[in-house]
Design a protein that fits this description.
mainly alpha, 9 helices, 0% strand, elongated
């Protein structure tokens, strides 16, 4: 009985502290004010554990199909480059205004393809990462994952050709559209 009473008192105390923190607006939600070291550590731990737990049963298809990678490159150029950059591009106006700053996907990072798929499909709350699964099917999301796994290896020119943003790609696209 004493353990139950102490647990209830502890829970009430934590609830009162949380209510006070909220009411006094101690936590600043402004995107131009960095989190404290403690808040950053907690947020990153919660995010990483949540993604790992929810992506562990995701079945990864073969990702080395060149058509899948090309499709992913086009979607990436349309939806992702403003936040996650492209080869040869070091910053963007949108990216500079976000906090936390999105990962630079042109550099190697530690996410598995299953984790990448889960994040792209479901997004991440309070990070500006949208849940693309609301508007894109799984095959399209896997195409983006296939491309993102190749992205750190690409030169700016090769990226532009794959993404369809270069003159060479425009010429190639137009020559196929006239046939």
């Amino acid at each position: 009985m004493k353990l139950l009473r102490n647990t209830l008192l502890f829970g009430a105390a934590i609830g009162a502290i949380a209510a006070l923190v909220i009411y006094l607006a101690i936590f600043d939600v402004a995107a131009d004010v960095p989190h404290s070291v403690f808040a950053t550590a907690v947020i990153e731990l919660v995010r990483d554990r949540s993604i790992a737990a929810r992506s562990k049963d995701v079945q990864v298809p073969p990702l080395d199909d060149s058509k899948l990678i090309e499709e992913g490159a086009r979607h990436y150029a349309e939806m992702c480059v403003g936040c996650h950059l492209a080869p040869g591009r070091k910053e963007s106006e949108l990216r500079n205004a976000l906090y936390p700053k999105p990962p630079d996907l042109t550099a190697r990072f530690a996410a598995t393809p299953a984790e990448e798929f889960w994040v792209i499909k479901h997004g991440i709350k309070m990070s500006a990462m949208p849940a693309w699964g609301a508007t894109h099917d799984d095959r399209t999301i896997w195409a983006i994952v296939a491309f993102v796994t190749k992205l750190p290896e690409l030169t700016p020119d090769r990226y532009q050709v794959l993404a369809g943003t270069s003159e060479e790609a425009d010429h190639h696209h137009h020559s196929h559209s006239h046939n």
